[in-house]
């Protein structure tokens, strides 16, 4: 998978806020393969805001 442009990458805190979950949930999603983490090992994790928007939309449509 190609890394998205720099302007689309956000840190874990912002990713959690964008989707409406905790930072711990973002980390769990990474370990389960639900979301893609960008960044070198032992460095700051970053996430594609467009991928996060898709997840947020899915979560809203699945909500009761």
From TrEMBL:
Organism superkingdom: Bacteria
Name of the protein this chain belongs to: Helix-turn-helix domain-containing protein
Species this protein is from: Streptomyces lasalocidi
């Amino acid at each position: 998978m190609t890394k998205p442009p720099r302007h689309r990458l956000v840190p874990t805190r912002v990713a959690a806020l964008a989707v409406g979950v905790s930072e711990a949930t973002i980390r769990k999603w990474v370990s389960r393969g639900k979301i893609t983490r960008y960044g070198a090992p032992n460095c700051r994790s970053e996430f594609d805001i467009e991928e996060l928007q898709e997840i947020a939309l899915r979560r809203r449509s699945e909500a009761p």
